[in-house]
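#structure-requests
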Amino acid sequence: MLRSLTAGIVLAFAGTRANVARTILSCAGIVVGVGALVLVVTAGDFGQRFAVAYGEANAGLPATFQVTVHGEIADREAFEDDLRRAGGQDVSVYQWPSETPLIRSGDAVLPDVEFRGVDVAMGDIRRMNMAQGRWFTDADAESLVPVLVVNQELADALGDVTEVQIGSGEWTDVRVVGIVESTTLDFSWQSAYLLHSPATEEMLFEGEDVQNEYQVRVDPDDPAAIDPTGQEFTQRLSSAAWRWSGGGPEPTVDAWRFDESEMLGSAVSYLSWGLGGIAVITLTTGLLGVLNVGLVTVRERRRELATYRALGASRSTLFVAVVMESVVVSLVAGLVAVLGCWAIVLAAAAVMDGLVSLPAGVTLSMPASGVLVGLGSAAFVGLLAGIIPAIRALRASVVAGLRE
């Protein structure tokens, strides 16, 4: 059996070299089909990674909830404890200041900057891609002056971030510890995160009709995470409202899923499946081309194949020879397609680097799965396309073949 297999492979390579023009013709359809399949896998992999990074940077890690309390929170520590009891793994305020302050560096006053009060835990809830400096730490929460992390647009407008002040009636020195890359969901094109601390407590929560907002990340496997409307999480919080409402009118609690990773990932998956179907149809067309060329080859080589049979070649040797010839042709086409796609991806990555700012850690590259899918599908198509010509070759009469 091993001898027949080896002999069949040798005959397959000999037949491929003897029919170069036919081999090139067979490759054309496979190159297009495999190339389309590899590009779809590459695009799907890139899209999935981009969607995850985009969602985590803009709206939070999977299973992030936005929680809004309409009414007074008399005991904020008890409320945050209840957020954790309800399933929250990371909890952070996400609060507009009661009165939006101005910000300045030197004499340059910027009036249209939006502020969001956050806790240190926001760095665990949302992917913060730092351009310079760092995110808040627990030590910053004890600072006697307000601590800021500003986005890139605000840092560029301020110029010098070492001497920054904020205020509405009087100016207060602040400390800028980091510059974060801007995101599409920044509350303004110039925005700043203001650390919730004793120095900013009054700025964030003092005033009439203050609406309390939090972001909470729960375990994605928690039953509450499955409900995007947040009804189960809301019920868990509302049932313990007496502990933190201060005995007054019971506040109204709203909670809903805020992250977008799963939605974006699903959209990318559906798109990949659709494009993959088109690529498979193209590959099937290539299979029919290889099959047609294989049938023509067997018809034209009947005398050659009959001679091999007359000289003692077994049926299994001829079967392997015909099938392997088809497989070799398809693998060559698949390799050409993979190399072509690799060059296209490299060129596209170079263009994107100059035009688009990608999330940190996300690059356009061909994944190993794309190479495996490309070469594997090429070999599989060659195998399928070679079986029918091989069967026809074995059924041909040796005597009739020698008389041609």
